[in-house]
């Protein structure tokens, strides 16, 4: 029987696809243009405080985007429930602190992994559309969370363990930044070096080749969603720690921003190509654009409009490059 390594094309090795590299260069140029524009037009953009705000925002979005990268590379489009799961995990963390700090973190991470992992199991086992499954799952999570919490914020228990360090700077840098860097390094190594990660690339690049190689499609799909669930849970913990409470409004635009970061980072929307490191770059670009628009007084709808246009252009360029490569 063929193995994963036998059927992965040489051009596909480690996901170093030319389309993604081109998009990364394009995004880097865009980022430099933003910095130059902001330098001459936006007061306060180059302050230390604003820089910390950008990297903190990029970290929260980026942690979720690391998990989203696994789903997209696997060829399962996106999860539209990760933002909701992160908010629910913030609620869960606040409640679970009654079991101690370590207990609260473990319970929350397991909860996030199970909730999103079950969605992956459903998608992988039945072949259901991941968009429909995750929309339904997100709505269900939100409804249950509001029902249980009564629609109000959840606060940590009295005399509960201290979790202030999760939201405090360490050597002047927000703690979530360290978590983000660790997530990117571990996520990149795992998806590039492990058999599981190579299986995701192959499954996304060519489902037929994946079946020929005897890949466990259901297991791989579930695994990709579990990784996304762990990342969403970690982000939820950090959000809860920062707000010192859990609320469903904390989801904000996390889902949209994380998808934008993945696509702007050059991961192919159809799967099979991408990089966690490039996703991290995408998250920083997205956070910088959002911050620039916020400083210039633009509302959230305008920010979403601009991000939507950028993502659309990136997707079109990716498609055109793929078509050109296919004809050559």
From TrEMBL:
GO cellular component: plasma membrane
Ranges that cross the membrane: 23-47, 53-73, 80-97, 103-124, 131-150, 170-191, 220-242, 248-269, 276-295, 301-320
InterPro entries: ABC_transp_permease (IPR001851)
Residue ranges that the Swiss-Prot or TrEMBL entry lists as coiled coil: none
Keyword set includes Transmembrane helix: yes
Membrane topology (UniProt): Multi-pass membrane protein
Record-linked Pfam families: BPD_transp_2 (PF02653)
Keyword Transmembrane appears in the UniProt entry: yes
Keywords: Cell inner membrane, Cell membrane, Membrane, Transmembrane, Transmembrane helix, Transport
Localization annotation: Cell membrane
GO MF terms, alphabetically ordered: transmembrane transporter activity
Official protein name in the record: Unannotated protein
